[in-house]
Amino acid sequence: MLNQEEQIKLRNRFNPEGSLLRQHQLRMLDILIEIDKICQKHNINYWIDGGTLLGAVRHGGFIPWDDDIDIAVMHNEYTKLLKILSKELPSNLKVQTPLTDKHYYSPFAKVRDLNSEIVEKGSYPYQYNGIFIDIFPIHKANKTLAKMSGRLTDRYLLSTTYRNNPSEPIRRKNILIRFFCFKILNLLFSLVNQLVKHNYLNYYWGTYYSLNCPKEDIVPVTKILFENHYFNAPRNYCTVLKYQFGNYEELPNLDNLHTHILSVKFK
């Protein structure tokens, strides 16, 4: 693992105090704190996920160059969580789903900050464009089917709807086509999944990431320190990170990093 001197060097290089990225990270942290309070109040067992979990274990907080936060929740609690968040989040935060934003049809939700504005790669024409946290529903699913569904969604449905020419106004027809295609894809993979062995947890159909780990490595959740706050984490979080990233302790090529966000503005 990295020693303190190495951690300080990374912070000074990528997200020193007062930098735009650090301000972005701290605004996301505020959102996570609000979500955590509500989940504790209603006994909903979310957990920090993906690069957020990796940052907690390897850096004690954000990966210094990271510009998003991921959390996950079992699919049977996902809808419940979104309903509760919609009622109890402070007025500066908004749950973003296809029901709250007619231009948004991803198979996972976001909680958006209304007092900021970001430009993401792909320039999706969403109604809400503030700093966000992703909320991923998790269910039992065959690894191969889950990957296939995610790649089809990302390569064909998302790309043909949004990415051909991001500068042009969105066409409502294209949005509807994508919506119905995703619904059909979702139904097809759900039916096939009933016939295929699926002892492992994965992201919901159409999500273009892979988890693929036993449920007992996730729940019951534990606590982990992230930016001087304790949040929920998978029970065997180091094992989960190995499933997702392999040798997660090793740093990537720091001269060839890819981020999600192109620009950030605070209102």
Structural key phrases:
267 residues; alpha+beta; seven-stranded mixed sheet; two-stranded antiparallel sheet; 7 helices; globular
Secondary structure blueprint with pairings:
Layout: H1 4-14, H2 20-42, E1 47-48, H3 50-59, E2 70-74, H4 75-88, E3 93-96, E4 109-113, E5 116-120, E6 132-140, H5 143-163, H6 172-193, E7 200-203, E8 213-214, E9 222-226, E10 229-233, H7 237-245, E11 261-266
Parallel strand pairs: 2-6
Antiparallel strand pairs: 1-2, 3-4, 4-6, 5-11, 6-7, 7-8, 9-10
Shape: globular
The proportion of residues forming helix, as a percent range, comes to 40-55%
Give the SSE string.
HHEHEHEEEEHHEEEEHE
**What structural category characterises the helix and strand content?**
alpha+beta
- Number of extended strands: 11
CA-atom Rg in angstroms:
18 Å
Discrete helix count: 7
Uncertain segments? 160-170
Largest sheet geometry: 7 strands, mixed
Mean of pLDDT? 87
| Fraction in beta strands | 15-25%
State the end-to-end distance.
38 Å
Q: What does this protein structure show overall?
A:
The chain is α+β, with helices and mostly antiparallel strands and 267 residues long. It contains 7 helices and 11 strands. Helix 3 crosses helix 7 (237-245). The longest helix has 23 residues, at 20-42. It starts with a helix and ends with a strand.
